């Protein structure tokens, strides 16, 4: 049989095809080996829990998801980061409770609030207040990861009447407009829970403190704000005008302290009346979104927290922030952020103008104490010590007597309370009225009807030179009096102001008083006893036993000249639902 003819071109093609296939197999194999060698080597999970403010939670969650998907290893384990939304006030309450401290205006924590490994509130003020109240609570680090300036938001037609956008009004101008009957309707998101509301409150308070009649100006501003406050930001935003009609503008909200982010979001909905953002100077404390690593984290968790923080410093996170209406931590922003008209290109802090944490916390405590005193409706019996020791001179108060500085504190405090308050006034020593240690000067009644009489009565009080301190009999009688006509719509309280321990041998003992209070206490009709201890010689221990039963607290002014500050703090820490 003749041999088959072989085409040499076909043989060459086969050889080339085989070579290519072999090369392909080598390349695929090499890629698989490379991928295997360079794949993350991790087993199990390295979990990290992050709790964040609603304003930034979406950007954090997206970044955490990206890190999780990369199967990044920390100590040989795959990171597993979970981000949840928690209101800053709720987390602050939980951390305060964990550290056995209280923050002005913050109630008891929710039982559902879990302490995270990392907390990202909207403001560093929360951390400053917690670390000041609880020195043992110190976060490992808390760098800012985003920023939003706090502005005064106004409907554009209203802002135009104040010169915007050609000029920006001052805080003093705004304060005058709020309190001079111009028809400017101001609002605020509850500043005990909202950082932007608190920032605006502090700025207004600083402006009010510079005038000749600072307390009257501050009180007027607080009452104007209180009449327009909202518990939720969305509720406040809904009160801005929905029409340019003059009547609608007049009846709607005219101004409120909000974050720049909130104004951006509002205007993005294309409302009938856009909001102007007024960047007043001095600039209020901005929202800075600190990345707070909780103390005591194990090394692996701390490593995951650092890995996430590294990712938050990348351009991708900056872009995510812009999508939420937030600036980067340095105050700058990219083109994706549609800032309000007149917004500064950068809104970073001025270190020279930034107060110390201690000064910030002191200012916050004063502002919130005053706010709570003004806004929380109350029925209060004020009981003032007129024993002989109240005639002692106070060197730090220019030689005024203890009685004089106490009465001045009461008078100034009275100026904060609006006409909805119901207040009564007693004095006490020993045998002030027959064998009784206490004397009623004014029954508990509406301030709208007896404010002038209350002020005149305070001005007429004088101590009894040879009087002792019938403290326990008076506390019991005052408690019974407030309980008799308990008002469910108010905080019912007894406020005692005294500079001495009980020294009435003819009255009830501490044990008898405690037993009587325990017997009379009704959890459905709570009455708080607040005791202001004046001077450094009084023993607070028995007083604390009393207030532990009733709710309230003991507040000691070791320097009697500071009684005004202590009085304000004591009033502000009343709670509508004492524990």
Structure, described:
The protein has helices at 8-38, 57-69, 88-98, 124-133, 156-161, 171-179, 195-208, 214-227, 233-237, 246-251, 260-268, 299-312, 315-323, 357-375, 402-416, 447-460, 471-484, 510-520, 540-550, 563-572, and strands at 45-52, 73-74, 77-85, 118-120, 150-155, 186-189, 229-230, 255-259, 275-278, 292-293, 378-385, 393-394, 400-401, 422-433, 436-446, 491-498, 528-534, 552-557. It has 579 residues and is an alpha/beta fold. It has three domains: 51-63 and 85-133 and 141-147 and 288-353, 3-Layer(aba) Sandwich (D-Maltodextrin-Binding Protein, domain 2); 150-278, D-Maltodextrin-Binding Protein, domain 2, CATH 3.40.190; 376-572, von Willebrand factor, type A domain (Rossmann fold), CATH 3.40.50. A six-stranded mixed β-sheet has the order 15-14-11-16-17-18, with helices on both faces. It has a five-stranded mixed β-sheet with strand order 2-3-1-4-10. Strands 7-6-8-5-9 form a five-stranded mixed β-sheet. A hairpin with a 2-residue loop joins strand 14 and strand 15 (436-446). Helix 2 runs antiparallel to helix 13 (315-323) and helix 3 runs parallel beside helix 4. The radius of gyration is 32 Å and the shape is globular. The protein starts with 7 loop residues before the first helix and ends in a 7-residue tail after the last helix. The relative contact order is 0.10.
């Amino acid at each position: 049989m003749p041999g088959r003819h072989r085409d040499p071109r076909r043989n060459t093609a086969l050889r080339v095809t085989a070579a290519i296939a072999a090369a392909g197999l080598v390349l695929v194999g090499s890629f698989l080996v490379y991928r295997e060698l360079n794949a993350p080597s991790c087993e199990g999970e390295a979990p990290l829990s992050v709790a964040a403010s609603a304003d930034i939670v979406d950007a954090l969650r997206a970044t955490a998801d990206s890190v999780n998907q990369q199967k990044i290893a920390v100590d040989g384990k795959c990171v597993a980061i979970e981000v949840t939304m928690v209101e800053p006030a709720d987390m602050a309450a939980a951390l305060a409770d964990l550290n056995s401290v209280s923050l002005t205006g913050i109630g008891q924590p929710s039982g559902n609030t879990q302490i995270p490994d990392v907390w990202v509130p909207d403001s560093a003020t929360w951390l400053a207040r917690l670390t000041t109240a609880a020195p043992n609570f110190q976060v490992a680090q808390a760098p800012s990861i985003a920023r939003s300036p706090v502005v005064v938001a106004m409907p554009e037609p209203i802002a135009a009447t104040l010169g915007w956008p050609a000029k920006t009004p001052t805080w003093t101008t705004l304060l005058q407009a709020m309190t001079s009957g111009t028809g400017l309707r101001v609002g605020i998101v509850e500043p005990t829970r909202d950082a932007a509301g608190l920032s605006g409150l502090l700025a207004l308070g600083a402006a009010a403190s510079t005038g000749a009649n600072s307390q009257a100006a501050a009180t007027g501003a607080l009452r104007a704000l209180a009449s327009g406050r909202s518990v939720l930001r969305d509720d406040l935003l809904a009160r801005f005008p929905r029409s340019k009609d003059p009547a609608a503008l007049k009846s709607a909200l005219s101004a409120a302290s909000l974050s720049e982010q909130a104004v951006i979001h509002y205007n993005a909905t294309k409302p009938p009346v856009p909001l102007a953002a007024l960047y007043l100077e001095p600039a209020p404390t901005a929202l800075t979104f600190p990345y707070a690593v909780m103390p005591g984290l194990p090394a692996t968790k701390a490593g995951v927290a650092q890995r996430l923080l590294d990712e938050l410093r990348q351009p991708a996170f900056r872009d995510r922030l812009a999508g939420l209406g937030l600036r980067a931590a340095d105050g700058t922003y990219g083109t994706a952020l549609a800032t309000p008209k007149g917004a500064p290109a950068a809104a970073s802090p001025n270190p020279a103008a930034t107060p110390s944490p201690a000064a910030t916390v002191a200012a916050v405590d004063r502002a919130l104490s005053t706010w709570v005193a003004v806004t929380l409706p109350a029925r209060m019996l004020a009981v003032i010590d007129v024993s002989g020791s109240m005639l002692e001179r106070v060197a730090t108060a220019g030689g005024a007597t203890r009685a004089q500085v106490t009465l001045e504190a009461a008078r100034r405090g009275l100026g904060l309370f609006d006409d909805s308050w119901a207040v009564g006034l007693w004095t006490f020593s020993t045998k002030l009225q027959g064998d009784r240690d206490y004397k009623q000067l004014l029954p508990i009644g509406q301030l709208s009807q007896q404010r002038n009489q209350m002020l005149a009565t305070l001005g007429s009080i004088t101590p009894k030179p040879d009087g002792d301190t019938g403290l326990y009999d008076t506390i019991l009688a005052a408690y019974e009096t407030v309980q008799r006509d308990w008002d469910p719509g108010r905080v019912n309280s007894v406020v005692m102001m005294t500079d001495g321990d009980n020294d009435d041998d003819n009255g009830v003992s501490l044990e008898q008083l405690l037993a009587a209070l325990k017997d009379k206490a009704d959890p459905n009709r709570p009455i708080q006893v607040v005791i202001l201890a004046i001077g450094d010689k009084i023993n607070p221990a028995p007083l604390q036993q009393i207030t532990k039963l009733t709710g309230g607290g003991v507040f000691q002014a070791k320097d009697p000249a500071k009684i005004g500050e202590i009085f304000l703090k004591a009033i502000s820490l009343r709670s509508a639902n004492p524990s």
